[in-house]
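B., you asked whether I could sanity-check this one before it goes into the benchmark set. Here's the sequence:
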Amino acid sequence: MHVPKYIFILFFLIFNSKTHAQNFDFNPNLQKAYSEICQFKIQSARQILVKENPKNGIKIYLDDFADMIVLLNNENKTEYEKLINKEDERLDLLEELDSKSPYNRFLRAEIKLHWLLLKYRFGSEVKAAWNFVQAYKLLEENRKQFPNFVPHQKSLGAVHIILGALPDNFAWVTKLLGLRGNIQQGQKELLNASKDPIFGTEAQFYEYFLNAYVLRWTEQKNQQLLQYLDQNKDYLSVYFLGVAISIKDNRSEQANNILSRRPIATDYLSMPMFDFYKGEINLQKGAYNQAINSYLNYLKSFKGKSFLKESYFKIFAAYWLAGDEAKAVHYLNKIPQIGNTIADGDKSAQKFYDDFLQKKQLPNKNLVKARFAFDGGYLERAIDEIENISEKSLVNLHEKAEYNYRCGRIYQKSNQIDKATGAYNRAIQLSEGQNWHFGASSCLQLGYIYKERNDKQQAKKYFEKALAYGKHESKYSVDNRAKAAITEMGF
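And here's what the prediction gave me:
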């Protein structure tokens, strides 16, 4: 998806037959189109693609790539339904091309992965899972036939990491379908692919994404991410990744800096998610009016269903924390009327509303402020807010559990590990038998603490305990991370 600056170097893969070259001709124009897609300059790419041979496999793949990025960005269901038949059409065209080329199965797998993401985003989870299985089998067949072909290691690496991080309760499914994954193998494949002159930067993109969202983000990875941004200053996609990861890893000031440096021109794709991210940054730093305006801009410009419930929840929170309870409740009541619950943030927003509807009670303001300050990496403010609370002052078990979990996160981040351990254990005790994430998330963090101390048995114990929790709003992400950590330790 994201290519290096030297993409314009002539790339023409020569095989023994003339037919093969005609089937998969990655000519300079298509290299330019690939670069434009990866920069999120979609219209420019399409102007190039329309002039190319429609039977060229590279052209077919790039048409699909462009469609995927546009649909993921705008989430326009009408456009999605118009294009959904393109998956099979393009796969049929590729299958008719030279079967002796390593690009045949590789590009078919890529299209399967494109539509996996789209089907999941538009709510077809079962169909998305089947795309994953089909892509895996195509990539494994390609690996066996062309073991020295580097580009397919980009996608193989990602697939193997995802499979390696799946919790044990999925093991029977993967075994039945013949799917095998290994985190270390996937990491090695992504490293090899990152050296490819064409697909290398895309492989790096996958590596950073998977480390942030499936494995665990580290300070070393963060420094590498900043270098990656400096090396790809024209790539809006890379800035998008940088902002998303920075916000996820409690680095709002870093996210704001990256956001302010992103390339801005009319030929780039317009991205509503940047308004959502501005809202996140401002809410976390306590700039409530700016946060409200950013979330409202997102709601106005985005035509899909993702992060709508979360946006309304965050607007509620901003008004409420600013002292305007009437407007706050007005936006809180909008949560069930719009969007979906595919994303964790939307699930949490809906759960917050359902709890409010049942109990007619809002949470402790200091606790909410501490959460947002911590989420942004504003540790001093988070500590000030949490110190204004005691467990005894909280009115219900849910808040007591959350309080201890938030204390654990704040203490852990400020390197007060003994205090963090005590707080996490208390959160686990208070969450027992409840459908909350605080206990499972506390187990996950305790696993990380013991893993860093090289106490593998204790780490394994807590990671397995995290996996044992029933359904909660963060179960998928907690389970993936816990399983990945167990695998990384060699169990």
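One thing to flag: The chain has 27 helices and no strands. Otherwise nothing jumped out at me.
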